[in-house]
Amino acid sequence: MQDKNKLTGTPISRIDGIAKVTGKAAYSTDYPVKNLAYAVLFKSTIAAGTIRIIDTTAAEKAPGVLAVITHTNAPKLNVNGGIRGGALLQSPEIEFYGQHIGLVVAETFEQARYATHLINVTYDKKEPKVDFEKLAKEATLPKDKERADAKRGDAKAALRDAEYKVEQVYETPIEHHHPLEPHATIAEWNGDRVTLYNSSQIVNGAQSAAANTLNIKPEQVRIITPYIGGGFGSKGGQWANLVLTAVAAKQVNRPVKLALTRQQMVNSVGLRQRNHQKVSLAATKDGKLTALAHEITTHGAIKNEFVEPCGDCSKVMYDVPNSLITYRAVPMNVILPTYTRGPGKSTGSFALESAMDELAYALKMDPIELRIKNEPERDPSNGKPWSSRKAVDCLQVGAKAFGWEKRKAEPRQNQQGNYLIGYGVAAGTYPAHQRPTSAIVKLKRTGNDVMATVELAAADLGTGTYTILTQTAADALGLPLRNVKVVIGDSDLPPAAGAVGSVGAASYANAVNDACQKITDELLTRSGKQFFARPTASQLMLSEKLTEFQTRIDAKPLESAEEYSAHSFNANFAEVSVNRFTGMVRVNRFLAVTGAGTILNPKTARSQIIGGNIWGIGMALTEESILDPRWGNFVTRSFADYHVPANLDIGDMEAIFIREDDQKSNTLGVKGIGEVGIVGVAAAVANAVFNATGKRVRELPITPDKLL
Amino acid sequence: MDVNETPDLSDDEKKLFEDLMPEDLDEILDTGVNRRHFLKLVTLAGGGILAAQSAVAEQLFTRPLSVPVAAELSSATIENGVNVSLNVNGAARKLLVDSRMTLLDTLRERLELTGSKKGCDHGQCGACTVIVDGQRVLSCLTLAASCEGKSVKTIEGLAKGTSGSTVRLHPMQEAFLKHDGFQCGFCTPGQICSAVALMDEAKRGDASYVTEDVRKKTAPVQLSTEEIRERMSGNLCRCGAYPNIVAAIQEVHSGKPVEQTFRFSA
Amino acid sequence: MRPFTYSRANDPASATKELAGNPNAKFLAGGTNLIDLMKEDVERPSAIVDISGLRLTEIKPIAAGFAKGGLSIGGLGKNTDAANHPLIRQNYPLLTQAILAGASGQIRNMATNGGNLLQRTRCPYFYEVAMPCNKREPGSGCGALEGVNRLHAIFGASEKCVAVYPSDMAIALAALDAIVKVKNASGQERSISFTDFHRLPGDTPERDTNLAHGELITSIDLPPNKFADKSYYLKVRDRASYAFALISVAAGLEMGSGNKIVQARIAMGGVAHKPWRALKAEQFLAGKEATAENFKRAADAEMADAKPLEHNKFKVELGNRSIVLALQMAMNGGKA
C-alpha cells in the first residue's frame, strides 16, 4: 500500500518529458554520427520461390552508390543467431512478399533510394501459401508444448448436454504494430566493436541476437537505445534490419544509417497473426458455466512458428469444470508473426468475452452478474491460489462509475436522433511476472549534496521507466527526485529484463529498490553504528563523510511467488453510438477499471491504460491488414490503407485503479499495466455495438459495411 | 471512491513547492503545506517543472540545441543541386540541396534539427509537422528546393532559451508535459507544432468538418473537445495519448485549467 | 525518387512553356500527392516546374459570363483558404464542408485547389509498382479487378480499371456545376465543365482527366446557386477522420414553395473513376416533395445501375443510405 510520504504513487510528470517536448530526445536515427552513409533496403516482389538472377549493375553505377549487398555477396551470418523473421540475405530463397533481398548504401539517402529502383530481379516463382481461408483446414498441432491441447473434464460431453449454450466463431485479422518510429539503426564500427543505435525493448536481447548473428562476441556489440519511439512487441525481438545495418557499415567502412520505410514495416518486423477462434460455452439456466471450449486456428511463417496464446484468458477467467483449449497452426508465406500488444489475450478475450455476452443475452442475465457468478477461487488452470485477484471489484466499481444501470438489456432500445446508443462490458487479465534484473547504484557526495546514479540496461518505450525508477530510487535512498539520475537503454549497463510482457516495471523497480536497500545495508555495516531508526543511504553518506560509494545487485524474483498465480485484472466499459444510416461507430465513452497491484505513478499509469484501451478500440473498429490471396502482398501497406485510430476516433476515456496490495507477487507489489490495458477492450466495444444495433459482429474490425 | 487523495507533503515536495510556487507561500503559511498544494502544482502549474528539477531531464541522452553549420556535402554527391535560402527558427540558412531532398530530410540530415520525425514519409502520420510561414505543413512532402525565402519553425524553435535553467518552454510544451500528452514521444514534436499552429487557426475563425454551421463565421472560434479532436486528426499517436493531447490543447486554448483525473478505488 | 531538374516558374506563361517542351515534366504545386507518388516511384518526372509561387490564388466574384454572380477560385490557392473564405462559407458551404472532410489540416494548408482536382487514385495496386496496373503501366492488367476491391468502383468502371477517384473537394464541385479554366503554353484559355474534366477509365485509364499536357489550371469558377442553406457533404469512412471515403455524397436542394424541391444536386465520391453525378436521383427529385420516402426512391433510382465487384457489394446499400442521409442533412440546413 502506498506510503503517504513517498514519491512513488504520486503523479509526477515524466522525467524524460522535457527532452520529448523540446525535440531533444534522441531516437535511433537522431544521433549526430559523423561521416554517415545511408542504406535503403529493397524487397522481393513474389511471396514464394527463389531468385534466379539479381542484376545490380545499374544500381552500382548510380551516382553516390558505395555498395549493393545481396545474397550473392553478403557475409556469412548465423541465421539461427536470434534475429527473427529471416531475410538476412543468406540465400536466394523467398519466403514472403516484401522480404529484404538486398540493400544499397550511398552517400545520401536520395541516392540510395533511387538506386534501389534500378535493381532487376528474375525469380523462379512458386505458388504462395497466403490464403488463410483455404489453408486453415490444413492446420496442425503447433510444435510449441505450451500450445498443446489443454483438457479438464469433458467439455464436449458437457456441451452436448447443456441447458444453454453458445457456439460461435470469432475472426480477428492480421494487425501491424506500427509504432510511430519505424525500426531504424545507425551502425558504427570501431575496430572489431560495433555500436548500434537501435530501438530495442530488450536491450540485452538485441545485443546477443546481433552478436550471435554477426558471429562475434556479445561484448563486441553495444546497443544504445535511451529513447524508443514505441514498440508494442515489434521491438522486442530484433529483425534483419539491425544486423544488415552493421553489415553495411562494415562493408563501406563508414557509419551507416538504415531506417525502414512505413511501407516496409508491414513485411519486416512481425505482425499479429490472423486468428480463427471457435468458442463454445455451456451453462445452467442460472448462469453457472459447465463447459468452455476455445479452439484456435491460426498461421505461422513458412519456416518458423509463432502462435499467440489466444486461449490464455479462457484458462483463468472463469470457474468451469469442463474445459478444452486447443491450437492448430498452418505455415504461410508471411513475415513471422510475433508478440503484439496483449499477445493472445487481446484477441482471445475478444472471442471469450463476446461469447460470454452472447450467453448472458441467451440467459437473459446481466453480463456482469454472469461473470461474477463464475468467479474462480483459485486459478482453474493449475489450482494455485491467486496472489490477489480484483476481477469482481473491477466489474462492480466500474458498473457504478460508468452508470451501467442505464443500459437497456434488449438491443436497439436507445436511439438519439440518427444514432443508436449501446453499452458493453468485458473483462480481461494478464499475468504478472518479475524477471531477473541487475542494477548498479552509485552515490556521490559533494558537500551536503548527495547525488545518486542508477544504472541498468532497462528500456523505456514510452512506458515511464525513467520516471518510476527515479521515484523508486529517490524513496529508497532518501533523496529528492532531482538528485537521482536514472541511466538505461545501453547494453554496457548491468543486464536487465526486457520491457515486454508487462514485466518491465516489476523487474526494474524491484531491482532498483533492492539495490538501494543493499547500498543502505552496506553503508550501515561500514559505519559500524547502531541506529534507533534505519537511516537513509543519503544520511549515511553525510554522516560517514563518504564521497563515493556504489553497489550492484542481481535481483531475482521471490521464490515464494511461484506458489501463487499472479495476474492483473480489469473490466472494460464502452458506450458506443452507431449511425443508423451509415454504420459508422464511435466510442463515446470508455472506462477501464484495473487491479494491477502497486501503481508507481498514477499519471503515467493512466496514460498507459488509456493507450492500451485505444489499441483495443483500433482492434475493434479500424485495424485490419489484408493479403492479396494471389500474390501475398499486403494491399494495406501504408498508413492511408491501414487505419490506426486517429484523434477523432477516440471519445472520453477514463481509468480507475483498484487499490491492491499484492506483495506475494513481488516485493513492491507491482504487476504491470502495459498489456492488460488492451485485454477485453475489443469485446467491450463489440458487445456495446450489439447492445446498440442488435447485430453481433464476430469478425473484426467493425467497419461500416458490417452494420448495414 | 477517493479522487486524487491528499496525504501530507514530503520534504522533497515542500522544497520543490517553495522553489516553484513562491506566490502561494502566503496561503501555505496560513494553511500549511499539504498534498493538495502539491497536486495543484503537479496538475495545474505544469508538473513538467518537477521534471525540470530532476537531474536527468536536461543532460542525459539529449542533444545540444546548438545551431550547427549546415553539413557541407561535396558537390559530387549533390545531384540537380538547388541553392536555397531560408530562415529556420530565426536563423538565416543557405544551402545547396539535391532537388529530391525534402524539407524534413534537410532539417534532420543537414541542419542537425532532428526533432521533426519521419514516421511515414508520405504525409499520412503528421510526425514531421513544422510551421512554414505561420502554417502547419508536412515537411516530408515539401521539397527543400521549394522553400526559398520561407520561414520555418520546428519544435526546436518553440522554447525560449537554449539549455538548463534558462529554458522557458512554450505554453503548449508545458501543457503537454502537465497532461502527459505523449508516451514514447516520437509523434510529440509534430503534435506540438500542429497544436501551436492550430491556436492561430482558431483565432482566425477557421472551420472544420465537425463545425456545426460553417456559414456562421466568428473569429476567434472557441474550440470544443470534438473540434480539437478533428483538427488534430492529422497527427497520429500510436501510444494512444489522444485524450491527454486534447486536454493539453484545450487548456492552452481556453486559458483555463483542464481537469484530468486518475482515480483510485479501494 | 528519380533524379529531376527543378525550376521555379515566375509566371504562368513561362511555366506552361517549360512544361510543353518536355513530355516528362510536371508542375509542382502543393506536392501532397506528387511527392508521395514520386517516393513510391509511381510518378517519374525528369523535370519539376514549381508553380507554387505563381499568384493564381485570388478568390473573387465573377462579374460576367456563364458563371456571372458566382465566384472564381484561383487554381493555386490553398485548400484551407478556399474552405474558409467568407464568400465560400456563406454561399458555397457545401464546398467548405467537402474540403474540410478531406485529408488533414496540414495537408489542406499545402494542397492547392487545382492540384486537388488532379489527385490520383489511392488504389493499392496503383501505388505498389510491382503490381499490375493499367493506369500506371498501360497493358499490365488490373490488379484490383479480381483482387482485393472493397474500396473500388461500382459505377462506370471498365475491364481495364476499377479505381475510384479520391478527392472530396471535387465531389462538391461536381454538384456545384463548377467550371475549370485552363491555359496552355500558347496562351490559349479554355473552360472545361466539371462533368467533362475527369474521365471514366474506358480503355485509357492512364488518363485521369481531359487536361492536356502543359495546361495549367488558372481558376475554378462556381456559378451562383440557390441551395446554400440546404446542402450537406456526407463522408462515410473506415475511421472517423483522416481517411479516404468509402462513400461520400454532396447534396444540395433548391426548395420552392411548400415542401417542394425545385432542383436537387447530388454527386457521389468513392463510387467511380470520377465524381459521380447522381443524375437519376436528381431527375427523380425535381418537382417532388422533400420527404423521406422520396429521398429513398431517388436513392433507389440512382443505385439500381450499380455494378459492384466481389468485395464492394456493400457500397450499393451504403450508397443508397448515404444519399438519403445527405439529403436529410441538407434539409436540416447542413448542420454537422
Can you tell me about this structure?
The complex is a heterotrimer of chains A (708), B (266) and C (336). Helices cover 25% and strands 26% of the residues of chain A. Chain A is an alpha+beta fold. Among the domains of chain A are: 344-433 and 562-707, Aldehyde Oxidoreductase, domain 4 (2-Layer Sandwich); 434-556, Aldehyde oxidase/xanthine dehydrogenase, molybdopterin binding domain (Aldehyde Oxidoreductase, domain 4, 2-Layer Sandwich), CATH 3.30.365. In chain A, β9 and β10 (193-198) form a beta hairpin. Chain A starts with 16 loop residues before the first helix and ends in a 15-residue tail after the last helix. The mean pLDDT of chain A is 97. With 266 residues, chain B is α+β, with helices and mostly antiparallel strands. Among the domains of chain B are: 1-45, no CATH class; 75-154, Beta-grasp domain (Ubiquitin-like (UB roll), Roll), CATH 3.10.20. In chain B, a hairpin with a 2-residue loop joins β2 and β3. Chain B starts with a strand and ends with a strand. Chain C is built from 13 helices and twelve strands. In chain C, 29% of the residues lie in helices and 19% in strands. Among the domains of chain C are: 5-48; 231-331, Enolase-like, domain 1 (2-Layer Sandwich), CATH 3.30.390.50. The mean pLDDT of chain C is 97. In chain C, a hairpin with a 5-residue loop joins β6 (179-183) and β7 (189-193). The interface between A and B is large, with 103 and 102 residues.
CATH C-level label of the domain at 231-331 in chain C: Alpha Beta
Q: If you compute it from the alpha carbons, what radius of gyration of chain C comes out, rounded to the nearest whole angstrom?
A: 19 Å
Uncertain runs of chain A with pLDDT below 50, 5 residues or more?
none
Largest beta-sheet characterization of chain C: 5 strands, antiparallel
Beta-strand segment tally of chain C: 12
Strand content of chain A: 25-35%
List its salient traits.
heterotrimer, A: 708 residues, Aldehyde Oxidoreductase, domain 4, seven-stranded mixed sheet, six-stranded mixed sheet, 25 strands, 25% helix, 26% strand, globular, C: alpha+beta, Enolase-like, domain 1, five-stranded antiparallel sheet, four-stranded antiparallel sheet, 13 helices, 12 strands, 19% strand, oxidoreductase activity (chain A)
